[in-house]
Hints:
Keywords: Cell membrane, Membrane, Transmembrane, Transmembrane helix. Helices cover 82% and strands 0% of the residues.
Amino acid sequence: MSHTSASPVVFKADMMLLLVTVLAAISWMFSKEALDGFPPLLFIGTRFLFAGLLLAIPGYSGLKKLTKHQWKASSGVGILFGIAMSTWIMGLFYATHLGEGSFITSLAVVLVPLISWLFFGDAMSRASWIALPLAFAGMGLLSLQHGFRPELSQLLFFTAALLLSMTFILNGRAAAHVPALALSAIQLSIVGIVAIALSAGVEEWPDTWTADMWWWLLLSVTVGTAARFFLQTYAQGMTTPSHAAVIMIVEPVWTATFAALWFGETMSLSQLFGCSLIFLSLVVNRWSAVRMWLARKS
């Protein structure tokens, strides 16, 4: 297929992936609103369990064909993903700056090469080595505003980023052998089961669910989770992983923008500089993909 004939397909994939980043960013707003009524672990568990069951409908034929080994591999990654998302939602529960939190969580992308190198012996590119100090410098600026006293939410978001980086690595290995839609349905459902189990042990559940609670949960399940993962899976099948990776970089920028518009959040100069360094580390980490994307657009 020529470049010219592929262009409409590439453009469609780009627009869908851009929409995915918007949905991912706006789901931070939905989640923060929902936490006014929900215990955090109960919310994230219910959200992901319902979303997983929704994705199981179009993914049913793929789920039926999975072997016992594929179910085991998918569930294993789902458990780690569940712990990561439980940590993330606790960070969101205590967060005072959603934009800052989104940039810290995005460090998962930069940490993937480091974790792969440390635990699997994979080689790290020069770009990854340059990206790491930029990322940690940005993180330092966010946590050193009043001396070295990182906020609890910052520590939780960074821990979630570490766990998510491990999830990305293991998920990449599982995805090579499991259909994407079936894998997403299993993993989202497992996340829900893990978070609800944790919630049952440590949280007090509300006696009644208000209309607002149902509304934010519905938006989080359908728009922020099921639609987002479905569109991401579909769009990634229309383009290369490196091309998709470039567009996904902008998610924390959207989140910070929506947080400013939605909640009136503002950042200090050091926070802005710290977030900028983290964003720069994302660009550097994916520089080869960025260069390919720019060449493709020229």
